[in-house]
């Protein structure tokens, strides 16, 4: 067990490593914050978001999704809107959903509309697609947006959401109107130029 008197020294060592500018020191230090209480970890994760290496900022975003606080939420919003690296923006979106989909939905939907980078869009699709709090109408809106993307990987993500919606009609709580629209969209994807999208659509139509 760590002696309480050693904790400030441990935190200071972690702070120095995170601020070192050397990812080989920063990354292990950030990973080590898993064992640190949120009130002590969050300031160090925020420090990580200020570093120049995108890997360090991305890992800091992931940490702020686990060690949650209002300061972390605000920092993640800023990273989602302004960070220059798509990996960081994608991780920020994923972490924001960890705070609850009801709160995060307007934010990640706006980011999906604004940010055409495929990595960000795939992160939003993955975070939302199987979320238990996701509403069928919202998922349908997101899928429609995904289907207009030039990147086939994003369109596949949209098709997978449509598949979930189409199959949900079989359950007592399923929205049959949404399911029918999802099937119609899946049928249209059979003409997509990307074979991965066609395969995802055919899989969905087997529901």
Q: Overview of this structure, please?
A:
The structure is a single chain. This protein has helices at 7-18, 23-31, 38-48, 54-66, 70-82, 86-98, 101-114, 118-129, 136-147, 152-168, 176-188, 195-205. The protein is mostly helical and 207 residues long. The protein has two domains: 1-119, Leucine-rich Repeat Variant (Alpha Horseshoe); 135-207, no CATH class. The longest helix has 17 residues, at 152-168.
**CATH homologous superfamily descriptor of the largest domain:** Leucine-rich Repeat Variant
- Rg, rounded, reads 20 Å
Strands, total number: 0
Shape designation: elongated
Strand content: under 5%
The CATH level-2 architecture of the largest domain is identified as Alpha Horseshoe
The helicity comes to over 70%
The topology string of helices and strands comes to HHHHHHHHHHHH
Class from helix and strand fractions:
mainly alpha
Described by strand count, sense and barrel closure, the largest sheet is: none
- In CATH, what is the class of the largest domain? Mainly Alpha
Could you list the spans in which at least 5 consecutive residues all have pLDDT below 50? none
The span between the termini is 54 Å
Number of helices: 12
CATH topology of the largest domain: Leucine-rich Repeat Variant
* Global mean pLDDT: 93
Domain count: 2
What's the layout of helices and strands?
Blueprint (H helix, E strand, L loop, with lengths): L6 H12 L4 H9 L6 H11 L5 H13 L3 H13 L3 H13 L2 H14 L3 H12 L6 H12 L4 H17 L7 H13 L6 H11 L2
Helix pairs in contact: 1-2, 1-3, 2-4, 3-4, 4-6, 5-6, 6-7, 6-8, 7-8, 8-9, 8-10, 9-10, 9-11, 10-11, 10-12
